[in-house]
Design goal:
heterodimer, A: alpha/beta, five-stranded parallel β-sheet, 13 strands, B: four-stranded antiparallel β-sheet, globular
Chain lengths: 338, 787
């Protein structure tokens, strides 16, 4: 349902600007796309936008199937295909194909093809670019994280709170950055942050065996919300954590769409199709309008969606505030999206 | 002088005073009625607009939902039906257009509109609207709308809801009858009682030989007017309630259907009516945005209050009370409750209270007008002392009033005419016609003076007023910048001629009593400065800028009547010599004179014209206030001058004091301008105009006196007139530079920057002139003691 809606958005966007036709290249263009776990709705949005805008491009798909070891072969393949643009999905793939800006290895990374990356939560933290405003190399892209303060505002407009619970993996740099950001916001907006990191095993990997206990401890400590950062490990065991939180009456707030799908009460997330469309918009700037990728800032969406899992809300006895019915994306696992 | 006992003359004098009473009352009645009517119309159209905006919001929601259900903008054949359905749900709507970023209509509830182009104004407002609904009065009638955008900010489509003001017209027709009736009764009675009182006072005065004070006559003109305005105010409040309350209830019903829709959605999501959360908060937000709502309540089928915001009365469940809107809440035909919206009758009072500043201004102007007319009627009565001199006052007042009327709206008018496609022109272009006006007056003044001497002052006055009338009439009808500039040049020529001829007339009539003659002349100009801008601002807001210019033309023609009544005198060859470039250069060679002129006199004029007549009207509009607010500020300046100039003139007895007044005045002016930069709101503007008026008032007399002191040798050689003529000419060049400098600053550094630069420059100039001229004091003092 949502997929179709997003596709329609792309199509209507095209309807709205038919006159924007710029200099069309005479030949067909080639885009090499590298994904992490097969095709997602991001790619749907990307393709739909290019089609609606009649960008004459053929996309050649490469997928690493969650296996980093496949990256070198794909990079070699792309070199021989000599595409006009490279598209990379997620932090792992983007770093693997394009390299960090301060550690490019011409042997392993593509350096002579303009690139757009997408769905990278923190491009500066991941060292893909030195700054969001100017990438300073032949790539640009789209990040999908909503600003933290917007997330906190949405949370408190659902239900105000004074104590916020957090579970995260201390081994993940991205999570640590987000946790620090939340703590800073807490100092400014005067709410307390209760943190429960996953214990690490001997190899330094997070251990999720006692995840339910972490939830219980937060609930008993007086947390009024459980915030779920964009944490890869946490995402893998999210259904268990979310089920437990709902059981003990703790509302949950997701930072990514995947966590919402796993059953969080609500969150501020980017629609994957919109992310894909926006990435295609930047690709169009490069391919059709001849802009240098280095001059195109890395951006996030201007509007995010606020999904609410109605089944969770009913079970918690926490209906969304009335005004939220105006703009929230209502998800009902018993009856589909409303 | 023997007492005036001629009964025929006394009778004529009484008749003239009766006419004065009638004119003052008529003025008050007209202004009060125009203001009240405009306020009602504004209130009504705001309410109607809010209804359409709320319909626009509903439409946006429904389009987004329709997309979720598989209907889409892309499938254009379903969209017109959706648009048509929404159009029919709100009786105000004529049609709904959907247009793209280029303004091309891609879908419409009326098929023949597709492919057409929307007015540029509409496109621009929609483009900058972001997520919020917008409303605009386009060439195509009033339109409200919303814009749908993608998650990364690109426009999917703008929805323009065109609506008719039928309900507004119907409501206004009823209200007009009521207001007209009230006005005729209130102000008719007021006119009658004024005339009775004035007649009685005038006869008594005639019996006492015209020696009793004038103020009881002025008061007799005004008091009935004040009373009539109060009664008319109460009566119009009733008319307002009759029309506004039902409209407000209809608007509340439109808001209510939105709220009911949300409750419906929440219930559909599986939450019971009573368990809903944040309903009171949604109600509170509604009341914050719609202050006419006294309370909002959600009741159940039994009439018990479930959610509420505001003071809910015990009889909330009754649906037969006027001033309430009830929206039923029903699920598949089963009614489970209602939303009740109560309209606060006090909001009508608040709307009228908004007018109190305007009404106060009208009364103040009526006061000045009454005293001016009484003075004219008395001063020019046959046998009155100084009769010939006093006769110049009324025509000069009326003519200058015409120019002053247009001050608060001129910059915006120029901007509108010179701009293209509804967009205002560049600030420097807006300043050009003002600068040109000042240039013609400055350069033409001496020539106009000599010319009027040659052909006779009366003839010159008549020609000047006629040229002015043509200029204002042309300005009212102007199409663009070029012809406006041409018409404004005629206005300037007329202004310069009337000014110079009037001044000459005063000098000739006053003979040795020059000071008194000038007081008459300056008094008329000051009165016009107080009355003109404030009334002009109100008129421009209510009737439009073109109508204000047309009225100015009419005033010029009106001024012709007393001009024709002036004694005809033959012209004679001019006695005063032209100011040559040579005398200007000789004067400027006097270093101290040059410093005084370049660092005090010219900067003061640059600030006055550039800030008060150019920046202030534009800035007031930028802050979102009407031209009436700009007019009030310019009036405040006039009032301060009237009150403060005589006080300051008495202070400047010595060179040191005069210098202190001049530099201090400039410094105060600079501080005022800096204050406006520091406080970007109306309070800042008030401080600005207050200090500007104070600063100019302090400096103005002392500055003239200093010229005489610093240029003793030149005065001895070339005569007072030549020196002062040259000085005034230089000073007026500051008038010319004012709008140009301010315009250049505005276009480069904006309002805040322009105020900062002008204020700081004034401070520096004050410092320089103070330091340089203070050293001139010692030799002068020695010279004086030696003499």
């Amino acid at each position: 349902m949502t997929t179709r809606r997003r596709l329609i958005l792309a199509a209507t966007a095209a309807m709205a600007w038919p006159a924007l036709a710029a200099t069309r290249p005479q030949r067909r263009l080639t885009i090499c796309a590298v994904t992490y776990r097969g095709r997602t709705r991001v790619e749907d949005g990307f393709e739909a936008y290019l089609a609606a805008r009649r960008v004459p491009a053929d996309i050649r798909w490469h997928d690493i199937a969650r296996d980093k070891a496949r990256l070198p072969a794909i990079v070699e393949a792309i070199r021989s295909e000599r595409p006009d643009l490279v598209y990379t999905w997620g932090t792992t793939v983007s770093l693997g194909v394009l390299g960090p800006y301060d550690g490019i290895d011409p042997a392993r990374h593509l350096t002579d093809v303009p690139a757009v990356f997408t769905l990278v939560a923190d491009p500066v933290g991941a060292r893909l670019v030195p700054s969001m405003a100017s990438p300073a190399r032949a790539l640009t892209g789209v990040t999908h994280m909503a600003p933290l303060d917007a997330q906190i505002r949405a949370m408190s407009s659902y239900r105000s709170f004074e104590r916020l619970g957090l579970i995260y993996s201390p081994s993940e740099q991205n999570s640590r950055l987000v946790v620090a950001g939340i703590e800073a916001l807490g100092r400014r907006s005067r709410f307390e942050v209760l943190m429960r990191p996953f214990p690490l095993d001997g190899a330094g990997r997070p251990d999720g065996a006692g995840a339910e206990h972490l939830v219980d401890a937060l609930q008993q400590g007086g947390a009024e919300w459980l915030y779920l950062p964009p944490d890869s490990f946490l995402t893998t065991i999210a259904p268990r954590i979310l089920a437990r939180a709902t059981e003990v009456g703790l509302p949950t707030f997701a930072s990514t769409e995947a966590l919402v799908r796993a059953g969080a009460l609500t969150g501020v997330v980017s629609g994957y199709e919109s992310v894909g469309q926006f990435t295609a918009f930047k690709a169009e700037q490069i391919l059709i309008h001849g802009r240098s990728p280095a001059s195109i800032p890395v951006e996030t969406l201007t509007r995010f969606s606020l999904p609410v899992n109605l089944a969770v809300a009913r079970r918690l006895g926490l209906p969304p505030p009335l005004a939220m019915f105006d703009y929230a994306e209502l998800i009902d696992t018993d009856g589909g999206t409303r | 002088m023997p007492p005036n006992t001629d009964p025929a003359q006394a009778g004529a004098g009484v008749r003239r005073l009766l006419a004065v009473a009638l004119v003052v009352c008529l003025f008050g009645a007209l202004m009060a009625t125009v203001l009240t009517r405009a306020k009602l119309e504004q209130g009504l159209s705001q309410i109607i607009q809010a209804r359409v905006v709320s319909a626009a919001r509903e439409l946006a929601r429904s389009v987004e939902r329709a997309q979720g259900l598989g209907l889409s903008l892309a499938e254009l054949d379903t969209l017109p039906a959706l648009l048509e359905r929404h159009r029919r749900s709100e009786p105000l709507l004529d049609r709904i257009d959907v247009f793209d970023e280029e303004g091309r209509i891609v879908a419409s509830s009326r098929a023949d509109r597709v492919g057409a182009q929307v007015p540029g104004e509409l496109r621009r407002v929609a483009q900058v609207s972001d997520e919020l609904p917008w409303a605009v009065a386009s060439d195509d009638g009033p339109v409200a709308g919303v814009s749908l955008r993608t998650g990364y900010g690109l426009v999917i489509g703008h929805f323009g809801l065109h609506y008719a003001e039928r309900e507004l017209a119907a409501a206004m027709a009823v209200a007009d009858r009521r207001l007209a009736g009230a006005a005729v009764v209130c102000f008719g009675l007021a006119a009658l009682s004024s005339m009775i009182a004035v007649g009685w006072l005038a006869r008594r005065r005639a019996a006492h030989g015209g020696r009793s004070p004038r103020w009881p006559l002025t008061a007799a003109c005004l008091l009935p007017l004040v009373l009539a305005m109060a009664v008319f105010g109460l009566e119009s409040q009733r008319a307002f309630s009759e029309q506004l309350v039902p409209q407000a209830a209809r608007k509340a019903a439109a808001l209510g259907s939105g709220l009911a829709g949300l409750i419906e959605r929440a219930r559909g999501a599986g939450f019971s009516y009573r368990s809903l959360y944040g309903v009171d908060q949604a109600m509170r937000e509604l009341r914050e945005h719609n202050p006419e709502l006294a309370f909002v309540a959600a009741i159940d089928a039994e009439g018990a209050v479930v959610f509420a915001d505001g003071p809910v009365p015990p009889d909330v469940a009754r649906d037969d009370i006027s001033g309430r809107a009830v929206v039923p809440l029903a699920d598949q035909g089963q009614r489970y409750g209602s939303l009740v919206f109560g309209i606060d009758p006090a909001f009508v009072r608040a709307l009228l209270a908004d007018m109190r500043l305007d009404v106060a201004v009208v009364l103040l102007v009526a006061l000045v007008l009454a005293s001016e007319l009484v003075r004219h009627a008395n001063g020019t009565a046959p046998g009155a002392p100084d009769g010939a001199l006093m006769r110049i006052r009324a025509p000069v007042f009326t003519f200058i009033l015409a120019e002053e009327l247009t001050r608060p709206c001129l910059p915006a008018y120029v901007g509108r005419l010179a701009g293209s496609d509804g967009e205002a022109a560049a600030p420097l272009v807006v300043g050009l016609p003002i600068a040109l006006f000042m240039l013609i007056v400055a350069v033409g003044q001496p020539a106009f003076g000599r010319w009027s001497e040659r052909i006779g002052r009366r003839r010159a006055l008549i020609i000047g007023a006629s040229i002015g009338a043509v200029g204002f009439a042309g300005s009212a009808l102007a199409h663009g910048l070029i012809d406006l500039v041409a018409w404004r040049s005629l206005c300037a020529a007329g202004y310069g001629i009337v000014f110079a001829a009037g001044q000459g007339y005063v000098l000739e009539q006053a003979g040795s009593g020059r000071t008194r003659g000038f007081a008459v002349f300056v008094g008329a100009i000051m009165a016009a400065t107080v009355c003109g801008p404030s009334i002009g601002g109100i008129l421009a807001d209510q009737l439009g800028q073109r109508a204000t210019f047309a009225l100015a033309a009419a005033l010029c023609l009106l001024a012709l009547a007393p001009m024709l009544a002036l004694p005809a005198q033959p012209g004679h060859p001019p006695q005063s010599a032209a100011i040559g470039a040579g005398s200007l250069i000789r004067l400027l060679a006097n270093r101290r004179f040059a410093v005084l002129t370049l660092f005090a006199a010219i900067p003061a004029k640059v600030l006055l014209i550039g800030v008060l007549f150019y920046l202030v009207p534009l800035y007031v509009a930028e802050l979102g206030h009407g031209q009436a607010a700009a007019g009030r500020l310019i009036m405040l300046y006039g009032l301060l001058m009237v009150v403060l100039v005589p006080l300051a003139a008495r202070r400047g007895e010595t060179f040191a004091r005069r210098l202190a007044l001049v530099t201090g005045g400039l410094g105060v002016t600079g501080a005022g301008v800096l204050a406006a930069a520091a406080m970007p709101d109306q309070a800042g503007l008030l401080v600005l105009v207050g200090l500007l008026g104070l600063g100019q008032a302090l400096a103005i007399s002392a500055q003239s006196a200093l010229v005489g002191e610093l240029c003793r040798d030149e005065v001895a050689h070339h005569g007072v007139d030549a020196v002062y003529g040259a000085y005034r000419m230089l000073e007026r060049l500051g008038n010319v530079a004012g709008p140009l400098v301010a315009g250049a600053l505005l276009s480069t550094v904006g309002f805040g920057g322009a105020f900062s630069v002008l204020g700081a420059t004034a401070m520096v100039c004050a410092l320089v002139s103070g330091l340089v001229l203070a050293r001139a004091r010692v030799p002068l003092a020695v010279a004086r003691s030696a003499a």
